Amino acid sequence: xxxxxxxxxxxxxxxxxxxxxxxxxxxxxxxxxxxxxxxxxxxxxxxxxxxxxxxxxxxxxxxxxxxxxxxxxxxxxxxxxxxxxxxxxxxxxxxxxxxxxxxxxxxxxxxxxxxxxxxxxxxxxxxxxxxxxxxxxxxxxxxxxxxxxxxxxxxxxxxxxxxxxxxxxxxxxxxxxxxxxxxxxxxxxxxxxxxxxxxxxxxxxxxxxxxxxxxxxxxxxxxxxxxxxxxxxxxxxxxxxxxxxxxxxxxxxxxxxxxxxxxxxxxxxxxxxxxxxxxxxxxxxxxxxxxxxxxxxxxxxxxxxxxxxxxxxxxxxxxxxxxxxxxxxxxxxxxxxxxxxxxxxxxxxxxxxxxxxxxxxxxxxxxxxxxxxxxxxxxxxxxxxxxxxxxxxxxxxxxxxxxxxxxxxxxxxxxxxxxxxxxxxxxxxxxxxxxxxxxxxxxxxxxxxxxxxxxxxxxxxxxxxxxxxxxxxxxxxxxxxxxxxxxxxxxxxxxxxxxxxxxxxxxxxxxxxxxxxxxxxxxxxxxxxxxxxxxxxxxxxxxxxxxxxxxxxxxxxxxxxxxxxxxxxxxxxxxxxxxxxxxxxxxxxxxxxxxxxxxxxxxxxxxxxxxxxxxxxxxxxxxxxxxxxxxxxxxxxxxxxxxxxxxxxxxxxxxxxxxxxxxxxxxxxxxxxxxxxxxxxxxxxxxxxxxxxxxxxxxxxxxxxxxxxxxxxxxxxxxxxxxxxxxxxxxxxxxxxxxxxxxxxxxxxxxxxxxxxxxxxxxxxxxxxxxxxxxxxxxxxxxxxxxxxxxxxxxxxxxxxxxxxxxxxxxxxxxxxxxxxxxxxxx
Length: 827
Description:
Strand order of the largest sheet: 25-26-28-29-30-31-32-33
CATH topology of the largest domain: TIM Barrel
Oligomer: single chain
Number of domains: 6
Radius of gyration: 47 Å
């Protein structure tokens, strides 16, 4: 190619390049003009979120120059975005979609404004980019705020229902018109079945026929409709004029909610015929009273309810339908309504057409449209059934369901009423407690126990007849309240009659049981002028009667009060005994009867108090059982005995185990196995170093908890024995079924051997039971050599008692065992 041709080609190429450059510049200018002409902020964003370009509307909206934004991350415009905010955007754009989201952007001064951002993806010369258009929603939000404010202040009621029919919003006017209490739950107030709804002809309408549901179903506005709403809870009828408008979400073809606007038109619905039809359906009678003419207009339902033949009657005729005591209350309410404009609602007793008692709820208020205030309107409602149900519940609340006697609360109320009335204050209280009931209840079970209680109640009723009030005061405790104003000897006479009524045996499950009663008597005002004081003193007298001899009665006296005071003093000090370190343990050796060798120890509790002195265990243990303090004391005994066993073992003393008595109350009141496990673990002892001695009463508790506790103790390796076997409610079935290791022969039976044939027979029987069941046997109360020799011949190998040693201090016990070791070493 010649030079000239080459130059020509270059000139053409240069011209083409200049033309293309000019065209590109023209396109860029056109893009920039269009880009900046968009009224909403538009951003060009790199795929990684870096802002590549921003139009003028964006710079104005964010109050920032381009150089403060270009090249920065989108977080500069929206610092509240989450760290992974681009992930959902990429996911939508990769599918060719447009990502729309509402976020809050930030201006240069830190202020925020809401925007709706539409994002789309595009390629710029092979580079993936995002174009984002942000529409400022501030004006829309302001409009929504103004809309909500309007909803709040408008005097029309407004309800919004969702597509599922549930009410999601009620403005203050709606709550006022429907008389909803402040803070009421919309779900509860508009729950299904809360309202009966009637049309203008008195026809009851189902929910689906209401304007709001019809608008949801059809998608069309339901124009103004007048309906009556009867609230079944408040018993109020309100007439409303309702317009319902369906509302659609953008792009939806079905309404997502419906707005209902309504007004209270009850005042315009005083048409008597319409009221009659609707209120008949709701079993509500309407009335209107003109105070000037003294005439009362009654609807059909009101006439039927009161048994009146005419629709118009005088106020006197209406009041004649009420009990005489109620007429004054009703008249006073009418006068207050006329004079002060006060509405009223009251329940009054009336007399029905059949002569039976009728309960009526009357609501009345001044006629709103009457400027003179002399016209009252209201409703009648027959609430007889409701009142009868309330009375039934009241009686049930005052009645013991097993015996149908008064219950504890009811008799306390009656006694309080009598003591508060000087003309009836001379009364006596008989406190009755059944003897031996717990034995029957434990042996035969609670069902048989209930039969005994019911039978005992009938016997007391026959004995007392109409001379006193009778109540079941507790489990097997009864109370009789009788007057002494006309017969001072009545309490003793009734007590004797009650005791006589228990003379015959009770037959339960084919067996006969002798159950007697112990009775305490206290009189007002000598022994107390308050119910609790009087009952407490009768209780004190009852316990004294039970202590002296069961099947008797005892009058309260100041001496008994002193005893009660001493008992309270004892219980008070006993409750503090553990904390005050007043308790200690002594240890009685358990020995081999043939050799006298000590092999174990039984822990025995002692208590010395600075005020009360040395207290015998048989005196304070019973009180601790009664008050429940035995649980805490028993826990201390377990821990202390285990710690002492640890100290003896550390000293090298060959003591096999230590025995601890466990109270029945401990067994019931706590997780005994857990307490034992903690005591053993704290002392570092194996389970077989501890023997727990239970009374026979624990045996008869056939509850799952009892069996599981025995099993748990057995798993620990603890030895289990029954103390004083044969004194209580022994049953061989329990010994066979429960994991018992041994029995302790009671010193009560050993005291008469070898001369008392009955005691000898019992000892032989117990020894035989132990041997046949493979149980160990330890004899208690061995006091002389004759008893020891008898036991050895009987095959009993182990025992304890004063023949060997009383309770010893830990040091004395250790010295005794040490001497034994020394003696055996020299033998």
